[in-house]
Amino acid sequence: MHIGAFVDSKCIGILSLFETNTDELPETKHYQLRGMAVDLDYRGKGIGKQLVNFSEHELKTLEIPVLWCNARISAKDFYSKLGFKVISKEFMIPDVGPHYKMSKSLT
Q1: pTM to 2 decimal places
Q2: In CATH, what is the architecture of 2-105?
């Protein structure tokens, strides 16, 4: 599932959701938030938060219980403010940098 934010038909933000489980959450079906980005001119204006909130709403309608992501260290506070919890030790993604797995219950 791909979700976009638009201003005057210009895409200013995106995120993708994939039905993918993670070993840290062995129970039921999960979706992973991947590939979120907001245009530099629109960062700090709540676009990312709106994209995540809209995604959560869509997943709840599908009765998906958990949303998780690989959060860059620099984005950890962003996700924490949206109710995500760290569920892994810090790990490296080659050519990208250090991350945490984070998740949020949608039930």
Answers
A1: 0.90
A2: 3-Layer(aba) Sandwich (3.40)
